Amino acid sequence: MRTNWLTALVLGASGVTLSGCGATEKADAAAVAEAERSGSASAVPCEGCAADADKPAVVAAIEAAHGKAAYDALGAAGKVVKADFDVDFGGGDLIAGTMWYDTPVGKVRMELDNGAVVVFDGQTGWSTQPDPEQGPSYRFHVLTWPYFMAAPFKLSDPGVTHADVGEMPLTAKSSLPASKMTFGEGVGDAPDDWYLVFKDPGDDALLALGYIVTFGTPKAYAEEKPSIIFYRDPVTVDGVTFATQWVFHFWNEASGMEGDAKGRATVSNIEFVVPPAGAFEKPEGAQEATLPGV
């Protein structure tokens, strides 16, 4: 039951829409058109990033635009990202709270508004409350939202492969070059996931990310209904740029995004901080947050 709900929520089963977002499709189309009008900026290597010459130009450009060198330096100095987050799907709140994650997104802590504390310690997920009766598992939450926030800094992770797939549609009237990102066997909980990376041709920032979710779902089923995230409203913190508004749509490779937004997320109060002692350890009284079906 949980897996089917997860598929409907994140992959976009028909009928799941977000109230109040009727104008979002037009806004996204306008943003894409403006990006195209601004012209393509050249890919600037990320100063201080390793092996830029071996990276696809789109990856090097996005990393430079978002300040990956500063991001990595802050992580090397022992800092982690702290942010408040609020995710809405299906016309209502899905999850909200505060998250901390290390810069590789290998360890995560969430303190949720419902009182739950959820931790991924690098190997195991932990939760102080049972999984919700409806909705994604806490293990899904603790790994998904930090990853989407850190996406510009995850494009050249070990085990990641990029392929130039040419022009792909963002909307019915607008296309941009895309890079398809896939994962090696055994990378993460869902190595069959793939992403389509779209760069803003004006400022080189990550403009959109197409994706499928195979977490607890067969790949063939997941590929029937891909999704896309549009990243908006950037802020820069200590030399690192994050998008603070994410808008989720259905997507298909023939005509791009479909219909009104199905969900959105907001991140705020972003800081780089030294984590509290024990932040990424099993919380007292927590139980394991397992994979679907485990």
Strands, helices and their partners?
Blueprint: H1 2-12, H2 24-37, H3 57-66, H4 68-76, E1 80-89, E2 92-101, E3 108-112, E4 117-120, E5 125-127, H5 138-149, E6 160-171, E7 174-183, E8 195-199, E9 206-211, H6 219-222, E10 227-237, E11 240-252, E12 256-273, E13 287-289
Provide a descriptive summary of the structure in words.
With 294 residues, the chain is α+β, with helices and mostly antiparallel strands. It has a single domain, classed as outer membrane lipoprotein receptor (LolB), chain A (Clam), CATH 2.50.20.10. It is 20% helix and 37% strand. It has 6 helices and 13 strands. It has a 13-stranded antiparallel β-sheet with strand order 6-7-8-9-10-11-12-1-2-3-4-5-13. The radius of gyration is 18 Å and the shape is globular. The chain starts with a helix and ends in a 5-residue tail after the last strand.
